[in-house]
Amino acid sequence: MFQISPEGFSLEGRPLRLLSGALHYFRTLPEQWPHRLHQLRAMGLNTVETYVPWNLHEPRPGTYDFEGLADLDAFLHATAEAGLHAIVRPSPYICAEWENGGLPWWLNADREVRAVRCQDPAYLAHVERWYDRLMPVIAPHQVTRGGNVLMVQIENEYGSYGTDTGYLEHLAAAMTARGIDVPLFTSDGPEDFFLTGGTVPGHLATVNFGSRATEAFAELKRFRPQDPAMCMEFWCGWFDHWGDGHTVRDPKDAAAALAEMVDAGASVNIYMAHGGTNFGTWAGANTKNPATGEVYLPDVTSYDYDAPVDERGGTTEKFRAFREVLEQLADGPLPDPAPMPALLPAGRVELSESVRLFDVLDGPDHLATPTVASPVPLTFEELGIEHGLVLYGTDIPGPRKAYPLSVQGLADRAHVFVDGELRGVIERDSDDPWPEIAVDGARTRVELLVESMGRVNYGTAVGEHKGVSRVLHTQQMLHNWTARPVPLGNGTPEGLPWGTATAGPGPVFHRGFLDAGEPADGYLALPGWTKGYVWVNGFCLGRYWERGPQRTLYVPWPLLRAGRNEIVVLELDGCAEPVVEVRDSPDLG
Ligand code: GLA
């Protein structure tokens, strides 16, 4: 059996050093899992670690999805077939630069839930129901039942968040009651307050860091003399925010940090060994200040992470540097890296068909979601939508002279229309002035098209609402709102009446076709476009934004077929020319 002692781990009585790499099944298409897992083996790893994002699997309370990209059972089978042990970090909260840290958006809408990530009874009731469905998927894969899952995590870096250790004990008991009998563990930063808030007596404690392993393990030892040294997240790269620079970490520096752990005899989980992609609208966000939740920083679509196995599954200089460190620990020669799939030739695709969003809002197609009326603007959660756009509208009674409009609780970006004319685009936290609006006649129509850019996944702002909370004209609250939700992300805008968009304000859908000789990987660039979403054959690749640093979107080969492939772009702000470029290399900034 798998056992833990102060000296380290052992399996069936033989010492086992965990050389693990994080790889999230939900950030890579299932057809590509074997390829990515092979790359981990070729780097010299013997274990793979994954989170489980609750919000992907339970899109509505009691409705579950374990298919395709969400097929955790198939992924765990694939990890065993690849000859790897597995570590599972199963939620409820995962952080992970993932929408809302993995917590479902509908928790934010449930008025019974007073707080998440603590022993709030209504929150725990949702967690228990989720665990009823999830734990039976994981349990058969445990090493105690002939599988390859060695350990399961309790919550995630709880010490960074709170002090309700009873909550952690509750989760541990809830997993045990549902058949999880491998060791449970926690992972936290190597600081006193993280470790006192995040660890649970009787369960292994591990630490997360990017460098200075010796100090980190010494701090862990001080708190937990009986626990072996394991870094559960060795940050060998990092993620990017829209509008910031692209983060890279020197491969030699990262390999030296890895060697320091290896020399200390420690076990390690490389975060990320392969990052993958935040497809659809799954990218999370940070706030500059995790304590106050101030200054919103949304994450880009790529989760390449500057990891040793890149977004496309290719090996990098960091891969080779890590392999050099790890191969000394291998029993025999390491396998060669897997061959790479074909790449699309570089080219251009004209998106010659188009239709204006505002022309289809009232049309007979599926975008015409019902108008919801309410005295005050409803949040996305109250409207029952996870992500996308909501067109809020109301009338300002007149006559009155010009007063400034102001919006409170904007999340995250609003196009402001006055009597149908675009008067500005305002972002959350920006100091840009809101337009002044005068009303000459009996009334003037104000509309706000609000976009959600991903819910915060770290700190006190987790569980935030999208939309707007209050709109004022001078000091006066504006009442009697209508809302038109346009959910985006998981699913294509199908059945649009394609033609040539009429002139006028608001976002525009564009469509064109890419001819491919065979399913192949590619990168899409959108030079001259501003901000929006891209779908390939109905699958949402994610968001793009001229602000960068990311300039190309990765197109995984399983999305394409030989022949004609549909590309749809929803451009929110306008583009110079409706042409996308196919490139043969990524540009992450
Ligand atoms: C923390 C979290 C991870 C991830 C990393 C940063 O360690 O536990 O989920 O957010 O930070 O990539």
Automatic annotation (TrEMBL):
Keyword Iron recorded: no
Residues annotated as domain Beta-galactosidase galactose-binding: 507-565
Annotated GO biological process: carbohydrate metabolic process
Range of residues in the leader sequence: none
Domain Glycoside hydrolase 35 catalytic: 9-328
GO MF terms, alphabetically ordered: beta-galactosidase activity
Catalytic residues identified in the record: E157, E233
Record-given protein name: Beta-galactosidase
